[in-house]
Amino acid sequence: MMPSVSLSAGVPRSVENLVRLSPATQGVLLGVIAALIWGLYLALARQEVAAGLSQIDIAAFRYGTAGLVLSPWLLFGWRQVIAIGIKKSLILALLAGPPFILLGVGGYRFAPLAHGAVIQPATVTMVSMGLAAMVLADRPTKARVIGVSVIILGIAVIARPGLLNGSPQALVGDAMFAGAGILWALFTLFSRLWQIPPVAGVAIVSILSGAVMLPVALAVEGIDHYAQLSVMTLTVQPLVQGILTGVVSVIAYTTAVRLIGPARAAIFPALVPASAILTGIPIASE
């Protein structure tokens, strides 16, 4: 959690005011940042899959970059990793690691952007609230249920044309998107249940996943495949998939979960469809 103490002289007042915000307000701002990054990630993933990249490529870019960026953190945070333990670390990596990307991105081989932008975050929202109520006894208030219902209804209105006009094979993609959403909801639950420090959680997932995906990508796709990719792809993918999505958005979201709880934080994935669809207009031409 961000400190609420006064900053030293010379720090811009706008930054000081931001740090002095209440934990709830900080949580909301961090959740919105995560939702905006996720929208960009979904639109870019759809565009790159249409251009020929595989889900293995995107997973390698995401976890390989994030793992390299966060590896130096182990020098200072190894005590947190030891405290979390191997079992919990493996579970977190399984939920938010390669299976999440392979399902969430692989679904675009069968279904368009609107499906992924709607089904995956809607699943996260509903499953997260249900799990928080059952496991953490964080039962949603009447106002929260009404608010989420309105958001889900809005999502349905946005997605209706694409969902109704989809091909039969789109059901395969839809199931993959739902599976990715369930994995992320479980990751959210266990992060809160085990009180996982945000940076430690991201570092564990990224480093373990990167250690798996980089050798797999090289074995499956080959070095020649990556040597032929454009400079733009080799620049944008590590930046967006690795740093923004793999590090910044996950830290922002897990911090929001710690500040306001998983049931309230479940609202942020519901903001992703609008973000993804609007971003997808210029990026994915959909």
Automatic annotation (TrEMBL):
Protein name as it appears in the record: EamA domain-containing protein
Pfam families documented for this protein: EamA
Lineage: Bacteria, Pseudomonadati, Pseudomonadota, Alphaproteobacteria, Rhodospirillales
Domain EamA: start-end pairs: 27-159
Keyword list, A-Z: Membrane, Transmembrane, Transmembrane helix
Transmembrane segments: 21-41, 61-78, 90-111, 117-136, 143-163, 169-187, 199-219, 239-260, 267-285
Keyword check for rRNA-binding: no
GO cellular component term of the entry, any: membrane
